[in-house]
Design a protein that fits this description.
By secondary structure, this protein is an alpha/beta fold. Helix 5 runs antiparallel to helix 11 (about 340-355), helix 5 crosses helix 12 (about 360-365) and helix 9 packs antiparallel against helix 10 (about 290-310). The chain has helices at about 30-35, 40-55, 65-70, 75-85, 95-115, 185-190, 210, 255-265, 270-285, 290-310, 340-355, 360-365, 390-410, 415-420; strands spanning about 25, 120, 125-130, 140-145, 160, 160-165, 180, 200, 220-225, 325, 335. The two termini are about 40 Å apart.
Length: about 425
């Protein structure tokens, strides 16, 4: 297929992303669909308790800490730093910079639990979706091979087998979660041995599973895949029929671009749809996302997502939006109520933990480490260092000048946040 026919077009290849191990976190949208499909609230409560316990252990330099840091690919500089400390036998409790980074990671994780309900699921991963080009997989089957070392260590390859759930964000319709069968046999291992940290979907079937999952496709979409049996419902709702709006064809000009930009900005209701869907689902403790208002919003959400590509503005004239909000959504200046379902319980539990573990104070004021706590490692003292102090302080001043500019620009409080990406 020749997509661009202009002879002057630059055909150089640009790489946007590649398959890599990404740990997967639950969020409020996924949790709401799990509740809708009859996953027990106690399971979610247990997962959050386990997550909190793991967070309280991350200041110990052990395998649990490396596993936690390795869960998030954004923390690779931190992982490398910790590996260096481990090899040099450095006590992270006595090293203020490392301790500050670990405390920052812990604080950010607590805040994400409170604001987004980001619960880490150990038996899950966020994987890039690809197609079975050999037509080995049957409808209802997928192939998943994960490697936490991203293929560096062959011994950590893990091929998943059995029932799994697959979804992706955004997901509003009860049928956006699919139950599929992960297969593992000699033939698929041989054919798919190069497909690591991917989820391979079948090319067979009346309808692509990717389309069943929030109307997605295989142009770089990433999927939540979990093989934790506690999160797999007995059955799920039928998928929604995602029909893309026909694209409006018009001549592209500067004036047309400006007009569309203004129209799109004035009619962007994606956030409003997401929030109202969550609020309505929360208020119906029997149907959750099966509530008729939620289904209407789910259908409109698909149109709103495609608005930028199709040019077709979603019609919200006769749609009902929420005016009453559960407490966990943080609508402090609007009508709010105490949510009675598990999302409300998880929110208030983590809020209690944050206040009682001093997380709130660290988040607001930043982690303060006294100069009295800093112990000089004698192995780092070199003979004649006094001759270089003047030049070293000049370089340090320049470093702090650039660092402060970066921190002010991004509203960052500490150097630990810069390094850790939290």
């Amino acid at each position: 297929m020749q997509k661009f026919k202009d002879s002057s077009f630059n055909y150089s290849l640009e790489l946007l992303d590649y398959s890599k191990y990404r740990a997967r976190y639950l969020n409020r949208q996924i949790i709401m669909l799990l509740l809708t499909n009859k996953v027990l609230p106690d399971v979610l409560n247990t997962l959050q308790i386990d997550n909190i316990q793991d967070l309280m252990k991350i200041d110990n330099l052990d395998t649990n800490l490396f596993r936690y840091v390795n869960n998030d690919h954004h923390l690779s500089p931190t992982r490398d730093l910790l590996q260096g400390c481990f090899e040099a036998n450095v006590d992270v409790q006595k090293e203020p910079f490392v301790r500050g980074i670990l405390e920052t990671i812990r604080v950010r994780s607590f805040i994400n639990l409170k604001e987004k309900c980001n619960i880490l699921v150990k038996d899950a991963a966020r994987l890039t979706g690809v197609l079975d080009e050999y037509s080995l997989l049957q409808p209802g089957q997928i192939y998943v091979c994960i490697s936490e070392s991203n293929g560096v260590k062959k011994e950590d390859y893990k091929v998943i087998s059995g029932r799994v759930i697959v979804t992706k964000n955004p997901c509003l319709h009860p049928g956006d979660i699919r139950i599929l069968e992960a297969v593992d046999n000699i033939e698929v291992r041989k054919r798919f041995e190069h497909l690591v940290n991917c989820v391979v979907f079948p090319a067979k079937g009346n309808r692509p599973h990717t389309d069943e999952i929030a109307g997605s496709d295989l142009d770089g979409d990433q999927y939540f895949v979990s093989w934790d049996p506690r999160l797999i419902p007995r059955r799920v709702a039928d998928p929604m029929n995602y029909i893309a709006k026909k694209r409006i064809e018009q001549e592209v000009s500067n004036e047309a671009i400006i007009n569309f930009f203004v129209e799109y900005t004035n009619n962007d209701v994606l956030g409003k749809i997401d929030n109202s869907h969550l609020a309505f689902a929360d208020q119906d403790s029997e149907k959750f996302a099966r509530n008729p208002l939620c289904k209407e919003l789910a259908e409109l959400h698909s149109d709103a997502v495609d608005y930028a590509k199709s040019g077709v503005c979603p019609s919200v004239k006769y749609l009902t939006f929420a005016k009453l909000w559960p407490d966990y959504m943080g609508k402090d200046f609007e009508l709010s109520y105490e949510s009675k379902n598990i999302l409300g319980e998880l929110f208030r539990d983590i809020k209690f933990e944050i206040e009682n573990r001093g997380i709130k104070d660290i988040y607001k004021k930043g982690l303060k480490i006294s100069s009295d706590e800093i112990q000089i490692d004698e192995d780092m003292i070199y003979e004649g260092f006094e001759n270089h102090l003047e030049k070293s302080f000049e370089i340090l001043k320049e470093f702090y000048k650039d660092l402060r500019a970066l921190m002010e620009f991004f509203s960052i409080q500490t150097e630990y946040e810069v390094f850790s990406g939290n």
